[in-house]
Specification:
Number of strands: 16
CATH architecture of the largest domain: 3-Layer(aba) Sandwich
Shape: globular
Structural class: alpha/beta
Helix content: 25-40%
CATH superfamily of the largest domain: NAD(P)-binding Rossmann-like Domain
Order of helices and strands: EHEHHEHEHHEEEHEHEEHEEEHEEHEHHH
CATH class of the largest domain: Alpha Beta
Number of helices: 14
Largest sheet: 7 strands, parallel
């Protein structure tokens, strides 16, 4: 396989993946609509600039089947990254998220079914499909809690408790066989993308791989998009001299995976037959609390802004989730190499070299509050 199409290839993951694949000798075609939310009003982002001249670029939208079909022609493999991202925003821009994420994937799959030379399909899924992660109860064993009750959240009870013992549950690594229970429209659309792709891959005899990415970060991620990526959001706040406002009590945790490791996992999935028709978690495999993220960034930027615990909560948020990596390690030898402290230092160093971005955080908070999604 030499000809690779990456939908959404000018985005954060896509641009880094493009550079690495080109370095490895692949012919890469990038199909992207250069969304202004990601690339800015002039669409001349650092992400887009980084791939100019090294690949074939096609400006287009996955919701336009005619444009997408031209991009698929003569491709050996498709890496489908194109999607709207942002848990909170998805809860009130439902039409947009379902239109792009589901219709765009449907268009791609119809094209593959009609006539194509594609020999492999990789689709970007998300840890958001799990909702709450996997937990351990002293009496029940492993459990998969439902979404937290609003009456508890409104009383600042943020942890997850056993319905049997009423004690706080211990959160553990979430494996690929864990319960699927997305808490957001974004999570629902990513699960549908995954289901559609895995099913049609089987029907069409196209080896398909679904990668459930955790929280991806690193140099190059958009600093102007206030809807996704807490490292970017916190950085922009701090560099503008503003405070960081943290939901809940700050002890909610996520699995932060460095961009180079995500690129590694994606290329291993492309090149290794053992990945065919498999679903994999892609993360670092360790949880980091949101409060710890804020403290580390605050120290690295030597910021005058404060870290404020608001005790507010956002509808659709989960408490804990981090990846069990045993499957992807055993089948295709994926091993993350960049720990969080090393990765965040690289990220901060890069951020400091960039032009200061306008802080749009307050705008997003007003939108969420007006939609009843922040309480």
């Amino acid at each position: 396989m030499k000809n690779i199409l990456i939908t959404g290839g000018a985005g954060f993951i896509g641009s880094n993946l493009t550079i690495k694949l080109v370095d490895k000798g692949y012919n890469v075609t990038v199909f992207d609509n250069l969304s202004r939310q990601v690339h800015g009003e002039d669409q001349e982002s650092a992400l887009y600039s980084s791939i100019k001249g090294i690949c074939t670029f096609i400006l287009g939208d996955v919701c336009n089947k005619k444009d997408l079909k031209k991009a698929v022609e003569s491709q050996d493999a498709v890496i489908h990254l194109a999607a709207e991202t942002g848990t909170g925003q998805s809860m009130y821009e439902i039409n947009r998220y379902t239109h792009v994420n589901i219709l765009g994937t449907a268009n791609l799959l119809e094209i593959l079914a009609e006539d194509s030379n594609v020999k492999k399909l990789i689709v970007a899924s998300s840890r958001a499909i799990y909702g709450e992660g996997k937990y351990l109860c002293s009496k029940e064993g492993f459990v998969y809690p439902e979404a937290r009750k609003e009456k508890d959240l409104s009383n600042s009870i943020f942890d997850v408790f056993s319905s049997l013992t009423k004690k706080k549950l211990e959160f553990v690594a979430t494996d690929e066989l864990s319960k699927i229970a997305p808490n957001s429209i974004y999570g629902i659309t990513k699960h549908q993308q995954e289901q559609m792709s895995m099913l049609m891959g089987k029907v069409l005899s196209i080896p398909t791989v679904s990668l459930r990415y955790q929280n991806v970060y690193g140099p190059g991620q958009s600093l102007s998009n206030p809807y996704t990526g807490i490292l970017s959001i916190f950085s922009t706040r701090l560099l503008n001299g503003n405070n960081i406002e943290i939901y809940e009590d700050g002890y909610q945790s996520r699995d932060f995976v460095y961009i180079d490791d995500v690129v590694q996992a994606t290329i291993l999935s492309l090149e290794n037959k053992a990945a065919n028709n498999q679903v994999f978690n892609v993360g670092f495999g360790k949880p980091i609390s949101v409060l710890d993220v804020a403290k580390i960034l605050h120290q690295l930027y030597a910021s005058r802004g404060e870290i404020i615990m608001t005790n507010k909560y956002r509808i659709g948020d989960i408490r804990h989730n981090y990846a069990d990596l045993k499957k992807i390690t055993s089948l295709i030898n994926y091993r993350p190499t960049i720990d969080f402290l090393t990765g965040v230092e690289e990220f901060v160093s890069w951020v400091k070299s960039q032009d200061l971005k306008i802080d749009h955080y307050n705008q997003t908070q007003i939108e969420l509050f007006n939609k009843g999604l922040i309480r």
